[in-house]
Amino acid sequence: MCGINGIFAYRGGRADLDEARRTSLAQAARGPDAARDAVLDDGRLAFAHRRLAIIDLSDDGIQPMTAAEGRVTIVFNGEIYNHAALRRELEATGRVFRSRSDTEVICQLYDAEGPDMVRRLRGMFAFALYDHARRRLVMARDPYGIKPLYYADDGATLRFASTVKGLVAGGAVADAPSPAGLVGFALFGSVPEPFTAVAAVRALPAGSLMVVDEAGPSAPRRWFSLAATIAAAESAPAPDPADVPALVREALRDSVAAHLVADVPVGLFLSAGVDSGALSGLMRDAGAVGTTAVTLAYDDFRGTARDEAPLAATVAARYGARHVVRTVGAAEYAEDLPRILAAMDQPSVDGVNTWFVAKATRELGLKVALTGAGGDELLGGYDTFHRLPRMVRRVAPFAAVPGIAPLADVAVRALRRLGAPLPAKAAGVLRHGGTPGGAFLLLRATFLPEDVRAAFADPAFAAEGLAALDPAGLVAAALDPMPATDFGVVATLESAFYLRNQLLRDADWAGMAHGLEIRTPLVDAELLGRLAPVFARRAPPPGKALLAAAPTVPLPDEILARRKTGFGIPVREWLGAPVAPAAWSRYRVRRLLGAYGAA
């Protein structure tokens, strides 16, 4: 895990190495173990890298790395879990390696197969490599977008980095806010790709690659699609129900074992939930004995159902983990808040919990930890898997009546003004609830598109952003091709929005702020490919019972029976926020928009 950045003057001229170094310095927390930069191709290209050493701890793994007999130079952020198998295959063809790093495997594989080799990489990654013979830059991201990659293009020079703030810190990228990005944040609580909070910066989409040569950047080309993967699974032969538990167990064990590949110890974020608890058991099955498992506790939750420490301790004892409970209170939150906001690369209504568990884990000397993020998207754990299809079935017949949606909107707003106890988004039920994409907006959005102007000081800024964002089009694009089942639709939407733009992005900035690599065994394209045919046609969704039963020693029944509470943290109580719990999301959005001068 690292921080990468670069400047490519593809029309000619020279890349500014000082600018590249300023960007690299702004990303220094991402790679505390080494820093290096290089100027290539007669000065047209500058690469810089900040290293967090996880695989091949020797200096042979330092980047920028030139490999394949000088034909390829790369800066790479992430981990390739199948690098050893790929190395053996490449060595069998006569290729010679000078390091044990997964970075060199990417270079050699590209040299052998070209850009489409990304399909063979299992892991989380964002990289930029320079093909010296073809004088082109190739940039790529992993299937889910676990690792970020941002770029800015001015028509003559392309700049890229692991962070938006890093690009701006270089000095050549304007920091004007993006109307589309901030409106997207107001809707979803996170900025949806490919937009960012800065107008001049774009995210390379997850599962995409882009080539930059003397003609300029190509359009990003998607090489992996969640919707297509799930749609294909829906038409695949269904396994025998009697075989399902074994299929699930084997797929999960394989993914956990792959995510344990490291030359340093690997820890675990352990809550009282099924996802992380099952990971604890699966880690032991994979041979990870005495894993350090870190649980957050809060005085505000002590003795309540939201106190996760007691049940987490039960799980840790069951699997022989070394359990560490770290208590966080209001004073530490107040002290850390300026650093949290500085590390938060783009606005997010979440991530504070990950900041503190990452901080606690790094304090213990660990550089890598597994997290159970992604289990709900994979196994149908959110209530949206039930609520969304039910809403569409109930609302669609009424929404089809001409003119009824605007009338219902007016009526509901009038009733709310008279004091009727209706939710803020009730006015949009008939307008949005009759289609899967619209129902997802209704259930997940903080503000609905027609109400989002209320979050901004400048209505014109909001209107411009809403038009550029096109929320309905953004959701429709995520569902292309449209999965045939309710499970497929919701799994795709949850993965493409909440998981990608919030959970994974929060894990990246909050972990890297402490020099901690956070790995997600339940967010893995190979795992999805193996389990989607098992789950795609199940109704209701499979839930967590199969995950709980996957370890050799299953999770205790009280974990599976516990009511889902999420990875909670009492920020509202610490702030003394003068809002009811139902209004907390909108309150947080407005506060963060204010930090960007938009509210």
UniProtKB/TrEMBL annotation:
Q: What class of enzyme is it?
A: ligase
**Any idea of its EC number?**
6.3.5.4
Q: Which UniProt keywords apply?
A: Amino-acid biosynthesis, Asparagine biosynthesis, ATP-binding, Glutamine amidotransferase, Nucleotide-binding
Q: Name one GO molecular function term.
A: asparagine synthase (glutamine-hydrolyzing) activity
**What does the entry give for GO biological process?**
asparagine biosynthetic process
Q: Which reaction does it catalyse?
A: L-aspartate + L-glutamine + ATP + H2O = L-asparagine + L-glutamate + AMP + diphosphate + H(+)
Boundaries of every Glutamine amidotransferase type-2 domain copy: 2-215
Q: Where is the active site?
A: 2 (for gatase activity)
Q: Which superkingdom does the taxonomy of this entry point to?
A: Bacteria
Output the InterPro entries linked to this UniProt entry: Asn_synth_AEB, Asn_synthase, ASN_synthetase/amidase, AsnB_N, GATase_2_dom, Ntn_hydrolases_N, Rossmann-like_a/b/a_fold
**Positions of L-glutamine binding:** 102
What pathway does this protein act in? Amino-acid biosynthesis; L-asparagine biosynthesis; L-asparagine from L-aspartate (L-Gln route): step 1/1
Which Pfam families does the protein's record reference?
Asn_synthase, GATase_7
Q: Any one cellular component term from GO for this entry?
A: cytosol
Which PROSITE patterns does the UniProt record give?
GATASE_TYPE_2
* Family the entry assigns: Belongs to the asparagine synthetase family.
| Family annotation (PANTHER family) | ASPARAGINE SYNTHETASE (PTHR43284:SF1), ASPARAGINE SYNTHETASE (GLUTAMINE-HYDROLYZING) (PTHR43284)
Q: What is this protein called?
A: asparagine synthase (glutamine-hydrolyzing)
What species is given as this protein's source?
Oharaeibacter diazotrophicus
